[in-house]
Amino acid sequence: MAGITTRGRTAGTLDPADRIADLERENAKLQRINKVLMDRVERSMDFQGGAFSLFQTAIVLEQKIRERTLELERALHKLEDSNRDLARAKELADTMRTRLFEAIESVNEGFALFDSSDRLVLCNRKYLSYWPTVAGRIQAGIRFNDLVAMVAAAGAVSEPPPDVWLRERMEHRHDLKGVFLNRLSDGRWIQVNERRTRDGGIVGVYTDITVIKHEEERRRESEQAEKSALMMLNDQLQQAKSQADQANLSKTRFIAAASHDLLQPLNAARLFVSALADLEQPDANAELVENIDVALASVEDLLSALLDISKLDAGAVTPELTDFPLRGILAPLATEYAAVAAERGIDLKVVGSGAVVRSDMRLLRRIVQNFLSNALRYVQGGRVVVGCRRAGDGSIRIEVWDNGPGIPRDKIAEIFQEFRRLDTPVTKGRDRGMGLGLAIVDRVARMLEHPITVRSEPGRGSVFAVTVPRGTERRAVRPASIAARPMTNRLAGTSVLVLDNEPAVVAGMEALLRGWACDVVSANNGDEALALLSGMPQPPDLLIADYHLDDGALGVNEVARLRAACGRILPAVIVTANRTPELADEAKAAGCLVLNKPVKPAQLRAVMSGLVG
Predict the structure, then answer these.
(1) Residues 191, 211: contact at Cβ < 8 Å?
(2) pTM
(3) How many Cα atoms are found within 13 Å in the side-chain-facing hemisphere of 231?
């Protein structure tokens, strides 16, 4: 026979079970044929009885038996092959089933598969963890409607009520449209995504979205609060405007208070350094003291620039444009960052320039300093160059070159956004910053109308530049040198009362004034100052008072009390970090001069000399 076929298909195309059944039927058929042949031979022998006929019949019978035997052997071989294939198929199915179970157990989401009769086929432990009160009763073969009824009865879902939830769950199960959300009794939110399989079953994926749901609730609450606020604003427009003005004023005052707290320690440090500079020092120590003073001045300028930017956002200040030489910015930066560059093995070169530009000196320094600090941060053992060149329109372009890792072209715009930083292997183990520097630079540059340009090539380095208009030489401001000292000491023997609530500031002021041969007494509050006055043979020649004192006391008010106790108007200096015009007007009305923190010793000495004279 050419091959066993069933319904027009060869046996090779059937599955193992069908092939075995066909072979067994074929074997039975061959046995029946053999039996019929044997019966025919026996009847022939009975009817004819001849020897020749018997011989002929035996030959035919033998040939038929041999053919049927061969066919039977072939059928048995096919049966053995089918059994072997069936065993292999069963082994492969077991392996695939094991892998399927392992894969399902490894996913983070819950997984459940139901057959066409909606009976549970399999699920993973994550799925069972969502129903801890009934997990032990969830077994393969349970119907879905029995399972959800059991969940509802156990109170595993917090809302809606169990009967409502059960009805909604079954309705969704019938339609399978969209997702279904379960809020469990332990506070978790579970999102259910279900799809039908080819054989009519249903596969479901259960995802824990508790964090996302809480965020949505908070956002919804925030949006609702915002809508309520907008409605109130629409109903009470005039009141809202007044509140906004008050809020703006409060913000300005907060910035002023923050300035005071930030500048207090810096003010004390400047006073101590100035007092140390007045003492005779070896040349090496004198150079160190001068470098410390330059560094503190840089910190002061940076901090002041940041505070000015904050005040600008509050609408409280505007840039102070002056004409000044660029060496007033570049030389301090070279001194400040020389040690940083040496520590990191970077060749830093700052090319001097005698050009005069028109800008806000502190804010422009903030821009250039940020460019330089970024270059030193991202360059490893390379070179950084700071220099100036003329632009086409006669303005000056300040450039910072580096041979660092560079910036991809599609990332250049992003680095000027808040909290955006370059992630490169060079930055590992270093201060990577907060990603705010270039965002502040962009804001300052737009405020000053100074264009910012960036050229960069990955692997070869970058050039950051700011273009500044030229200034007038005769209006240039020359920064005072720390080494400048008056030839004569006009303050020797001057009696000074210092009123400040910060011990460090008091100690620094005392050290500085005593270095100028002044007689100094100090107090932390107005009551202490009044007690000191009562024990002094005569009133002091000068009062120096901080504006913000403890318990809400103000320096101008305490000066008025001290003057009243002395019976005359004592010369007074108010020291403050608040640079608002309102405070200046208040001090002027009280007959006091104002010095802003951090106090510059040379400026303080000049003011004191003028008042005492």
Answers:
(1) no
(2) 0.38
(3) 6
